[in-house]
């Protein structure tokens, strides 16, 4: 979701990985005094006993979205799950005496890549309205905060601008209203120049400049996402990826031209060039970056002053997203009218 996607601010995600949110066991002692827990396996007295100042919550967020004929529709969810598990372990090792709580993941997000092709409904995409997503993240974060806990970190695997803006707004609301730290790590990751520079070096290591140029904007189900899935869940990558023709777009308008062609199969860039080795390197990049951002926050750095991607809808895609939000609003009105008018039983 992410990588080029977040950097370029459009649809997709640095997705790929193993299924399932949270560590394998309820209590995983990864180092002396460090503890990782799955929230759903705890009792409420256990949760209530945690030190409010030295407990952090990780909320992974994915998406169910078409990813071409070669990747699973849960690629974003699978990818962020893999990253969240690794980050939880690393953070717990770096913070002896702290509790790391993995929240059950939110597997539905806003705006699939099919929107790029003016397809509001698609058999591989099942999303929720932006307002629903914003409320969902705010509801969960606010309850953690009102229970007295101070640290909440959202790790997101989907790159749609409206999706990311909703998470940013929910995190800001919780942080400002309840005086806690709730951060959207994926937004900070995309806005961090040093982290993005590291990503450029990884791409340069695995592909020549002319090869990278030929990929176009690698924002959805292309080289990066396919490589990551080959690295962590190769069993879910369909062999057809090796024979898919390149669909490279070098601008948002070119991407839209590709996506609106009859019979578009739902991918961009050049998935046939994907390799597991490149995927492993990209995954480590995400895990390293997320871990560093989280540790900087708990060690006292004010992360609210840093750039975050996206802060607003990119002008080039604004018309598409405005239409999408109008459709969502109309659906909301339809639902409310139905609730008012339905016969009482």
Structure description:
This protein has a single domain, classed as Creatininase (Rossmann fold, 3-Layer(aba) Sandwich), CATH 3.40.50. It has a six-stranded mixed β-sheet, sandwiched between helices. It is built from twelve helices and six strands. The chain is 46% helix and 9% strand. The protein is globular and about 55 Å long. The termini are far apart. The chain has helices spanning 3-8, 44-48, 75-94, 130-146, 161-178, 185-191, 193-206, 209-215, 223-232, 252-259, 276-298, 318-341; strands at 27-31, 34-38, 55-61, 99-102, 151-156, 181-184. With 345 residues, it is an alpha/beta fold.
Top keywords for this entry?
single chain; 345 residues; alpha/beta; Rossmann fold; 6-stranded mixed sheet
Helix content: 40-55%
- Tell the overall outline: globular
What name is given to the CATH topology?
Rossmann fold
- Provide the residue-averaged pLDDT: 90
The major pleated sheet works out as: 6 strands, mixed
Distance N terminus to C terminus?
A: 45 Å
Q: How much of the polypeptide forms β-strand, as a percent range?
A: 5-15%
Our count of domains comes out at 1
Give the structure's gist in a few sentences.
It is built from twelve helices and six strands. The chain has 345 residues and is of the alpha/beta class.
Record the SSE blueprint.
Blueprint: H1 3-8, E1 27-31, E2 34-38, H2 44-48, E3 55-61, H3 75-94, E4 99-102, H4 130-146, E5 151-156, H5 161-178, E6 181-184, H6 185-191, H7 193-206, H8 209-215, H9 223-232, H10 252-259, H11 276-298, H12 318-341
Parallel strand pairs: 2-4, 3-4, 3-5, 5-6
Antiparallel strand pairs: 1-2
């Amino acid at each position: 979701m992410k990588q080029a996607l977040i950097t370029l601010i459009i649809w997709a995600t640095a997705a790929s990985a193993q299924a399932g949110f949270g560590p394998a066991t309820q209590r995983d002692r990864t180092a002396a005094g460090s503890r990782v827990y799955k929230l759903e396996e705890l009792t409420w007295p256990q949760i209530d006993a945690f030190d409010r100042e030295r407990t952090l919550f990780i909320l992974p967020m994915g998406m169910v979205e078409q990813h071409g004929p070669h990747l699973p529709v849960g690629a974003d969810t699978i990818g962020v799950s893999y990253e969240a598990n690794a980050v939880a372990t690393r953070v717990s090792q770096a913070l002896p005496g702290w509790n790391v709580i993995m929240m059950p993941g939110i597997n539905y997000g806003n705006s699939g890549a099919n929107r790029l092709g003016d397809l509001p409904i698609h058999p591989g995409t099942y999303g929720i309205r932006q307002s629903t997503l914003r409320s969902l993240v705010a509801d969960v974060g606010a309850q953690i905060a009102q229970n007295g806990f101070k640290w909440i970190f959202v790790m997101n695997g989907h790159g749609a601008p409206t999706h990311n803006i909703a998470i940013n707004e929910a995190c800001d609301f919780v942080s400002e209203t309840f005086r806690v730290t709730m951060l959207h790590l994926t937004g900070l990751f995309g806005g961090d120049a040093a982290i993005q520079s590291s990503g450029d070096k990884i791409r340069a290591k695995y592909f020549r400049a002319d090869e990278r140029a030929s990929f176009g904007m690698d924002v959805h189900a292309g080289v990066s996402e396919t490589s990551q899935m080959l690295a962590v869940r190769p069993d879910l990558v369909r062999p057809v990826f090796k024979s898919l023709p390149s669909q490279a777009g070098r601008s948002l308008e070119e991407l839209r031209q590709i996506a609106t062609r009859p019979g578009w199969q739902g991918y961009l860039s050049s998935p046939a060039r994907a390799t597991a080795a490149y995927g492993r390197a990209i995954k480590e990049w995400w895990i390293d970056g997320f871990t560093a951002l989280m540790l900087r926050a708990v060690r006292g750095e004010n992360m609210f002053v840093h750039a975050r991607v996206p802060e607003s809808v990119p002008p080039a895609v604004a018309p598409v997203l405005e239409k999408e939000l109008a459709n969502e609003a109309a659906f909301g009105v339809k639902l409310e009218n139905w609730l008012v008018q339905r016969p009482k039983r």
